Structure formats: C-alpha cells, structure tokens
Amino acid sequence: MPGLIAPRPLLIENGVYDDGFPIEASIEAHERLRQIYRGACAEERLVFDIFEGAHEFSGRKAFDFFDKWL
Question: How many domains does the chain divide into?
C-alpha cells in the first residue's frame, strides 16, 4: 500500500528497538518500496532512516527532507 504514494517524497524512520515495527520487516518493506520508486524514476524521493531508538521520532534526516521537499 505505501507504494501508492510514489513518486511523491516519502521519509520513513525506524528505530532498531521498535517492537511494533521489527527492523528486519522494515528493511524488507523499504527494499520493495525502493524498487517501486526506482520504477517511477523517483528513487531520490524515498528516504529511509534507521536509528538507535524505539518507537519515537528521530529527526536525524527529517529536517533536511522537509527543507528539500516541502
């Protein structure tokens, strides 16, 4: 379902200790999304941030992403 947003910009943050979104599943989903974005010639619009944390906002890549795409 998230692939329907392509080619619009999408940032996904995932903490490695997030019990609700296991990191392995998130990495797998991101790879599928990357293929969709690549097919839409929009791979640079997909940003994935894996960070040391749980179910929380990192912001590490978010502010640059917002500056570029909003």
Answer: 1
Helix (H, G, I), strand (E, B) or coil at 19: coil
- How many CB atoms are closer than 10 A to CB 13? 21
65 within domain boundaries: yes
Q: What pLDDT is stored for residue 59 in this prediction?
A: 93
- Please give the structure tokens belonging to residue 30: 């991101």
DSSP 13: E
**Residue 55: inside a domain, yes or no?**
yes
Return d(Cα 51, Cα 59) in angstroms, integer.
10
Distances, alpha carbon 45 to alpha carbons 12, 16, 30, in Å: 11, 22, 13
pTM of the model: 0.88
pLDDT of residue 2: 78
